[in-house]
Amino acid sequence: MRPEMLEYTGDLPVRARVLSISEYPYHWHDAIEIIMVLEGQATVGIGGETHLLGENDIAVINVNEIHRIQKSGGANKLLVVQLEADFCASSIRDFRYTFFQCCSAYHEAGAPEKYTAVKATILRLVSWLIGYPDEYEQINIINCLEELLSELEYGFDYLRHGSGIQAFEEKQVQRHKRIYEYAMNPPGKTHSLAEMAKALGISAQHLSNDIKVRFGLTYQELLFCGKCMEAARLLLGSDKLVRVIAAECGFSDVKYLIKHFKLNYGCTPSDFRKKHGRSGEPLSESKYEEYPLLSILPKVAL
Questions:
Q1: Of 11, 49, 78, 177, which has the fewest Cβ atoms less than 10 A away?
Q2: Backbone angles phi, psi at 301, to 5 degrees
Q3: Is pLDDT of 299 > 90?
């Protein structure tokens, strides 16, 4: 029900739309999505967190990351850019380990230069997309996409920056990728911190402290956050019983899913399904109005 299938024009691995959104319910898609507020405000729910975006704010949604968009106050106008996952994987080495944490309402004040650069690249990309791109413009679009992904990778990758702004040493980044790989494979299996520390050749206490300091969350909190997001997708995208979903997401007992889901989403899994499931309402019935991409020209000119 909730996975959104995206269609791209021609051979380009990107699409851009200008939307005025009243309500776009929880969904996810096989793409990186960038939301930029052109006018007004919007409330963007990413996973279990909610962010209020004002004019010129941006937020990046990761591949298959559950999210929703609602208006806040009066009408808004949003630029929504979506980048095909396969193209992102071909442009970023080890893309499967990449998780962008980019929300200007969250920490732009601490890194204004990074946000200024990525916003400028987004607007330049859209300027190339306006109209029907010829062969020359398509080359510029691809080059601009690769530049944008590079800015996101080296400026906003969670495994590269953690909860801070300064990038870690490359050696530490590689360790984080190993931790991510060990924690997530095979799906549904929970690895203890001690098992992971042994595989990395360090003490469990050292690993525990390192994760907490760098990411602001404990290993278990990070692990359960990911499991709860997978549970949220299954709650909205299937009719499976909650206890079945708990088992598929690696919870030994449904009570642990309920406990951690309430911590991450503020409600029980059943209440989340009742509130956001919409009784099978398709995403095509979301409340929004679309404008021509040309309407962004005054913004691009700035």
A1: 11
A2: -65, -25
A3: no
